Amino acid sequence: MLFLVRMDVSLPHDMPPAVADDIKSREKAYAQDLQRSGKWVHLYRVVGEYANYSVFDVESNDELHGLLSSLPLFPYMKIKVTPLARHPSSIA
Ligand SMILES: O=C(O)C[C@H]1C=CC(=O)O1
What we know:
Its EC number is 5.3.3.4. It catalyses: (S)-muconolactone = (4,5-dihydro-5-oxofuran-2-yl)-acetate. There is one protein chain. The protein is an alpha+beta fold. The chain is about 35% helix and about 30% strand. A four-stranded antiparallel beta sheet has the order 2-3-1-4. β2 (about 40-45) and β3 form a beta hairpin.
């Protein structure tokens, strides 16, 4: 099952830089592991925003929820999920 996911990150302004750096470093490692596993298929920065558009390929809504809620940045993100279906004109 494919899902388009938008993540908007908003870290508290008073978060100490070392704490923010640690969360971002763990987030990067987790994101890269999921990309290597094939579950996080695309990851693009939204130009000019601390946000990304991603495509996930997972078995179920529950699996996606588990992956997203385990992101180290999850407490600091607004996440919008859009389920995707095959387009009838797609040649892919
Ligand atoms: O930077 C972001 O968009 C948030 C998050 C998603 C992947 C990652 O490494 O951080």
